[in-house]
Amino acid sequence: MRGLYINKWKLFEKLVTAIHLVDESNSRIKWNEKIYGRQFDVTIRTKIGFYDYLTVIECKNFSEPVPVKEVEAFVTKSRSVKADKAVIVSSSGYQSGAEEVAKQNKIELFTLKVSYEIPENLDSGQIVYALNAYDFKLHLPDGKTYILLPEEKNMLPYLIKHTIFKRGEHSRLLNGIMESLREELSSKARCEVQLQYIPLQPGTRAINPIIEKDVEISGFSFAYELVPAKLLKGNVAVDPGKNRF
User: Fold this and answer.
1) Considering only Cβ atoms within 10 Å of each terminal Cβ, which end of the chain, N or C, has fewer?
2) Are residues 92 and 139 in the same domain?
């Protein structure tokens, strides 16, 4: 069986989009939008009182720090669409001089990194067992090909909530199906990996933020198990190694 994988550049851009979508404000957030013929990875339009504000975001998933010339190019690009705020998000930091150029031109720089450490003021010191579902695969009707939902940088929980299965006029979220299975999975789960396959009716199509267009699938599968998780203050469990369901 072979898997279909998502372009890492697009994954990073959509991760940044997903982070901003967590905000429950009235902002309109879009991925990969063109404004006056110029492409922007993420755009945010916010209305405050009588006024509209445009924020444009450039995502740099480089293996090396972002060079000065990239920041300078974004200065020109953001000004051409009269953006109120311009932001660059990097996966690997910035070269010397880039921060000064950004400061002079009011460009905000951020570096997106994964952290596996829990701040001491949030750690309760208690351990609980959490149900973890991961390794989600959308199986195509040929029985040989699947789309693997990426788990990098905590993308999986977001995709579970935004994967839609459609058949005719009916649609259902993957998250809704998983919620309906929660009690059954919890009763069967052990501290060892188990696999589950959920068949779907013929003609079912799947769509989510990382799939370019909807695709027909025969079902989906995932692995699940009970794993120890640290309990944060406020009764929130966190397992830094997997995607807690």
Assistant:
1) N
2) no
pLDDT tens figures, 164-209: 999 999 999 999 999 999 889 988 988 899 999 999 999 999 998 8
The verdict on 73 and 128 lying in the same domain is: no
Instruction: Give, for 103, the enclosing helix (H) or strand (E).
Output: helix 98-104
Q: What is the bridge-based pairing of β-strands 85-90 and 51-60?
A: parallel
Domain ranges, residue 191: 123-238
Q: Which region, left, alpha or beta, applies to residue 50 given φ > 0 means left and ψ of -120 to 50 means alpha?
A: alpha
C-alpha closest to that of 217 among 172, 180, 166, 168: 166
The verdict on residue 234 lying in a domain is: yes
Could you give the CA distance from residue 127 to residue 157 in angstroms, rounded to a whole number? 22
